[in-house]
Amino acid sequence: MASKTPPLEGCRVFVIEDEYFIAADLERTLKSCGAKVVGPIASVGEALAQVRADGFDVVVLDINLRDQMAYPIAEELTRQGLPFVFATGYSEEVIPVRFAGVTRWEKPYDERAIVEEVRRLCAKTPRPGGQPAEAAS
Question: What CATH number does residue 96 fall under?
Answer without folding.
Answer: 3.40.50.2300
